[in-house]
Amino acid sequence: MTTSRDIDCLVCGTCVADILVRPVGLNEPIGGGRLIHVDPIEVVTGGIVCNTGIGLARLGGSVAAASLVGRDPWADVIRGRLAAEGIDTSPVTAHDTLGTSTTAVLIDPGGERSFAHHGGAPYAMDFAFIQGLQSHLARSRWALFGYLGLLPGLEPELGKAMAVAKQAGCLVALETGGAGGTLEQLAPALPHVDLYVPSLDEAVHQTGLTDPKAIIHCYRELGATGIVGVKLGTKGAVLTEASGGHEAEVHVPCLTPPNPVVDTTGAGDAFLAGLLTGLLREMPLRQAGLLAAANAAYCVTGYGATAALCDFATTSALAGPTAG
C-alpha cells in the first residue's frame, strides 16, 4: 500500500433498492385476497455496496461503489443515497437491458424479516466488469466483493477476479449472501483473499461442517492465508489470523444494542464495515472485531440496513475504550 491510494475501500457487488413493509406477521401465511394495514412504506438501499459502503463512510472511510444498475428510477435512488453519504458512484454502471435489483422486505413486529427479491443487473457482473475497474482498484487500499452466492455472472471466474484485485495492490475481502455459494466457487478465490468471515449458515452450506474451528481449518487447507472467521449471530464471531506460522484465534462477543432491536436487516454487513474500518485504522484484530460488533449492535436498532449506523466516535464508545 502507498499513500497514493486515496480510496480506503472499493465496494463491488450487489446494490439494491429495498422497499420496507412493516409490520407483517411472518408466523402464518399471508394468504390471498387480504388487505394488510402497515406503517408508511419506506424505500431504502440494500446490498453490500450500499450497506457496507455506507457503513464504512459513516465510520469515516473514503469509499467508492461499483455495481450494475438498470436504466430506471430505482437506479437514481441508489446513486442518490450513495452520493449523499459522500461515496464515489462513478463505477456504478447502467445495464442496457436489465433492471435495478429490488427487494420487498417484510418485517414482523419482532424485527425478523423475509425477502421478495429481484436480482436484476448485478447478476450480470462478470470478470470483464472487474477488469474494467483497474483505475479504481489501483487507488484502493481494500477491495470488497460480494455477495458470493448472488453473483452468478462472476462466480465461475471468481478466483481470476480476486487475483486481478490482488495484482492491483489491494487487500481483498469477500462476503457471502443468500446460501453463500459453493466451495467449488470459493476455493480458487481463497488464496487471493485477505479477509473472509461468512455467517455460520453460509459456511455450513459451503463446507458441510458445523464446527467453526473445523470450518476455518477447511478454508485454510484451501489456501486462505489472511483473516478468516465465522459470524455466529447472537453468539458473536470467531476470527483468526495467521502470524509467524501460528494461528491466533479471537472470540468477539455480541454486544448489547444501545436501543431496542427493531430490524436485523444488514447486521452482517454492518459487522463487516466495522471490521474493515478497524483494520484500516490498524487496530489489533480483537479491537477491530469489537468495533464490528458495536456497528452491528447499532444497525439492528433502526429499520433498514443503514438508518441507525453512526460515526466512528459513537460506535467506538460502544465497543469500549480499547477500540477507540
The CATH architecture category equals 3-Layer(aba) Sandwich
* Secondary-structure element pattern, one letter each: EEEHEHEEEHHEHEHEHHEEEHHH
Q: Poorly predicted ranges (pLDDT <50, ≥5 residues)? A: none
Percent helix = 25-40%
Q: How many DSSP-defined strands?
A: 13
How would you sum up this structure, described in words?
The two termini are 23 Å apart. The strands form two sheets. Strands 5-4-1-8-9-10-11-12-13 form a nine-stranded mixed β-sheet, with helices on both faces. The chain has a four-stranded mixed β-sheet with strand order 3-2-6-7. Helix 2 links the parallel strand 4 and strand 5. The chain is globular and about 60 Å long. With 324 residues, it is of the alpha/beta class. 31% of the residues lie in helices and 24% in strands. It has helices at 47-58, 73-84, 127-131, 134-137, 158-167, 183-186, 200-207, 212-221, 267-280, 285-299, 312-319; strands at residues 7-13, 16-21, 42-46, 63-69, 92-94, 101-107, 113-118, 140-148, 171-176, 195-196, 227-231, 237-243, 246-252.
What's the layout of helices and strands?
Elements: E1 7-13, E2 16-21, E3 42-46, H1 47-58, E4 63-69, H2 73-84, E5 92-94, E6 101-107, E7 113-118, H3 127-131, H4 134-137, E8 140-148, H5 158-167, E9 171-176, H6 183-186, E10 195-196, H7 200-207, H8 212-221, E11 227-231, E12 237-243, E13 246-252, H9 267-280, H10 285-299, H11 312-319
Parallel strand pairs: 1-4, 1-8, 2-6, 4-5, 8-9, 9-10, 10-11
Antiparallel strand pairs: 2-3, 6-7, 11-12, 12-13
Helix pairs in contact: 1-9, 9-10, 10-11
